[in-house]
Amino acid sequence: MQINTSVPLALGLRQNWQQFILLVIVNACVGGMVGLERTLVPLVGTQEFGIGSDLVVFSFIIAFGVVKAFTNLISGVLADRYTRKNVLILGWVIGIPVPFLLAWGPSWNWIILANCLLGISQGLAWSMTVNMKIDLVGPSKRGFAMGLNEAAGYGAVGLTALLTGYLAVQYGLRPQPFYLGFIFTSAGLMLSIIAIKDTKGFAKLEADQWSPLKLIEPQRQPTLSWVFEQTSWKNKNLFAVSQAGLINNLNDGMSWGVFPLLFTAAGVNLEGIGWIKAVYPVVWGVGQLVTGPLADRLGRKPLIVWGMFLQAVAHLFIGLEVFPALWTGLIGSALLGMGTAMVYPALLAAVSDAAPPLWRASALGVYRFWRDMGYAIGALMAGLVAAWLGMVWAIHVAGLLTLLSGIIAWIGLQETYKMVKK
């Protein structure tokens, strides 16, 4: 296999800042594709297609989460065995039909198909931007790198969610708000083909130059089944990280489906829904500009544990409905975003600490499999609980699970950063 040697093989952000910035821009485009759906798709289901079942409405999130989770698993193997760049390009190519289907799909089944394609596209493209940034910066700046990566992605999610809400007020739910997807796919694909260079050589360089404490054996490229077992349950640290990632995205999957319907029923207009749906990922995204570097200073564990606890507080605040609906949604979403910002880069950095460079992408793929299964589990849980007890109780159940997850991380997770810090 040929490695692109035109990229100077020196680890570090300063040495590779041009490629790093380009990858940040690409991931903003990736995030924008998810943001297309945050405000409007649940409302398309209820208002345009007349779907009365919460579980059926949330089915698009379930489809997205399951497909993205399994694609993450495959993308890690592909990245370890082939080139990151080719996998990134493939992700964009698969995502090309998505805005067309969202804008003009004649039935709910077409929306589900769009989300299956979006899940594959995200699983390939977002995974590669994560792996490529980790490859470039080396072990000492992983938290910072992941903070920038996720800030770009989820900042774009939030801003796109807000913009689609405004466009829907002006033009209706479809098709105009989804035209933004054409811009994201075109820009992301062209940058990936023309400007992005492969980074697998950097992972090989790190493996040759730097050897962490042997947290996990073997120091070679093992089978996917071996990596899956280690990351999922055999290694105590990686189990703690994987379960926290799953519950974190359970919250996101729940809020994705529940918030537009809950706050619409409470009398919040479409513009207000757009703001509520934007605040969460924007705070989540921008907050990682702070929490990513903090993970490199304070360590991974404090941010993971207290971030989960803060998310549990956010659920309690929203569920109690103390303030008028709009303010409850805005403040609760901001708290949820702060907690998620604390957790997200620290979790990715912790996995990268624990897995040797030669099979780190596969370990990240397994972690992201469990994390993104949280979308499907959260949407399924929310649909079942909402049908039985009401939507507010879906929020309460998510809050309880988040609290328990934080306790598991508190008890079971050892600090990983001290194991790789020079």
TrEMBL record:
- Membrane-crossing ranges are 20-36, 56-79, 86-104, 110-130, 151-172, 178-196, 303-320, 326-351, 372-389, 395-413
List the PROSITE patterns hit by this protein, alphabetically: MFS, SUGAR_TRANSPORT_1
Q: Which GO terms describe its molecular function?
A: transmembrane transporter activity
Alphabetized, the UniProt keywords read: Cell membrane, Membrane, Transmembrane, Transmembrane helix, Transport
Q: Which GO terms describe its cellular component?
A: plasma membrane
* Membrane topology, as annotated: Multi-pass membrane protein
A Pfam family assignment: MFS_1
Q: What is this protein called?
A: MFS transporter
Superkingdom per UniProt: Bacteria
Subcellular location, record wording = Cell membrane
**Occurrences of domain Major facilitator superfamily (MFS) profile (ranges):** 237-422
